[in-house]
Amino acid sequence: MKIAISGSGGTGKTTLCHALSAALGLPAIEEQLQPVVEAINQVHRARQGETSPERISRAERAYGQVCEGWLNGRVALHEKFPGGFIADRWALDILQRWLIAGIQRDNDLLTRKLLGHVQKEAQQLDLVIITPMIRLQDEQLNEAGLHRQQSLSPRILSHAMYRGLLEQLTTVPRLYLSSQPSTVDQRVDQVRELLNRLRARRNTSE
User: Fold this and answer.
1) How far is CA 189 from CA 16, 130, 173, in A?
2) Which pairs with CB-CB distance under 8 Å and at least 24 residues apart come from 187-193?
3) Cα 87 from chain centroid?
4) Which end of the chain is more exposed for a tag (fewer CB within 10 A), N or C?
5) Helix or strand or coil: residue 107?
6) What proportion of the chain, given as a percentage, has pLDDT over 90?
């Protein structure tokens, strides 16, 4: 069973990833998003300062390279666990962040590559879980020490993009978690219930 979890910061992705890992006996793949966050922060700093277009372009190209590197590393991790895993974020999250960044310079080639990563990875997944828009935690930093997304507008946009991209680009089974159930144990039970329905559906069709 290969499951990936997406969603805005602070909505319980990492907590659910570890809980499902324990409940289903599958390895957890951590998000390891620090290099991606640092690269986009470099882009923001380049744009905000009195910076030449060349420097902005270099920062944006570097960001694209980091995104590709993250995805390539993810492929290697998935191959390491052929029997299944619970992944905290996947290619969809990188595509969403890339689009949010609004990079305009010659970005179509990388955008197509990211689209390809999402579609290819989705074919290998058994389930994608999207956490709700609201935050479960009030802490400003997540488990990796990264700042959580605090403002309402970016969280609404992020959540809408996750759902829209998933619906338009893939046919993978998906579970959109609502704010209820709200506890981790209740969410694990909700995932278990869906997995049982998916297994029963497969058995019926065989």
Assistant:
1) 11, 15, 17
2) 187/12, 187/16, 187/19, 188/16, 188/19, 188/20, 188/23, 191/3, 191/16, 191/20, 191/127, 191/129, 192/23
3) 9
4) C
5) coil
6) 62
What is the strand order of the sheet 174-176 is part of?
28-29, 85-88, 2-6, 127-130, 174-176
Mean local confidence (pLDDT), 127-149: 65
Own/partner pairs for 35-44, CB < 8 Å, 24+ apart? 35/66, 35/69, 35/70, 36/63, 36/66, 36/67, 36/70, 36/94, 36/97, 37/146, 38/66, 39/63, 39/66, 39/67, 40/97, 40/101, 43/101, 43/103
Helices 91-101 and 152-169: crossing angle in degrees, nearest 10, is 120
Radius of gyration of the chain (CA): 17
Q: What is the pLDDT of residues 30-39, one digit of tens each?
A: 999 999 999 9
Average pLDDT over residues 7-23: 92
Cis (ω within 30 of 0) for the bond into 173? no
Rounded Cα distance between 131 and 191, Å, is 12
Gap between the Cα atoms of 206 and 201, Å rounded = 9
Q: Quick one: tokens of 121?
A: 């990875």
What is the β-pairing status of strands 85-88 and 28-29? parallel
